[in-house]
Amino acid sequence: MGPLGEPSLPDLCERVENRFLWAIRIMIRSRIRNLVLEWSGSVANIGAMPSYPKSTADEVGGMRYFGRMIDKIRLHSRGELPGEYHPNLGIPRSADGICLNFLRVNYDDLKKRVLEGGTDEEILEWCYEKGRRLNQGDLTVWNEFIRKFGWNDFATSILERNKQAAGVTDRDDLQTIGEFMDWEEGRFGEN
Fold first, then answer.
1. Is residue 60 located within the same domain as residue 140?
2. Domains of the chain: total
């Protein structure tokens, strides 16, 4: 820090470099996607492009986040889930772990069920049978929790650390983990 509390030159350079690298990564992904669309007419033909799970805002059976967790299991099993997602798969203090606890389902059991196949809706129904069935009140509580995850709670420090690593600490519009993930995966503003 400088004498007036401003960032030092090395700190500023690091922030600019981080922001630049993240922006380049997002632009490259977007350009590859657009080129494939122009060439083939279908996103389904994208092969080697990095794969990302659904947004935290996407719902399965009225439940936010569940589809993202299922997508991560599927992508991981095919070797298509980017490495930065691996450490949080099913751990208790992650969105996966909190979702599993809310449903009263074990991660390894869910992983096994997902790999057997089926739609997201069928797998959610399996969770209801093996764990607990959520009613409309439960879904409202869950959806509001996951919508605000990282905003003034135990995950705020994780969000701030991720924003710092990405060089976007000045982005006041990224206030939750879900917003940050959508931004990082090139979807921010679509939800």
1. yes
2. 2
| pLDDT-based confidence at residue 187 (cuts at 50, 70, 90) | confident
| Interatomic CA distance for residues 183 and 55, integer angstroms | 10
Length of the chain counted residue by residue: 191
Reported as a single tens digit per residue, the pLDDT across 16-68 is: 565 555 555 555 555 555 455 455 544 444 444 457 899 999 999 999 999 99
Are residues 74 and 134 part of one domain? yes
**Quick one: CA torsion of 184, 189, 190, 191, rounded to 10 degrees?**
100
Residues spanned by the domain of 6: 1-49
Do 57 and 120 belong together in one domain? yes
Residues with Cβ < 8 Å from 8, sequence gap 6 or more? 1, 2
Contact by Cβ (8 Å): 176, 148: yes
The amino acid sitting at 180 is: F
84 and 72 part of one domain:
yes
* Residue 49 CB neighbour total at 10 angstroms: 15
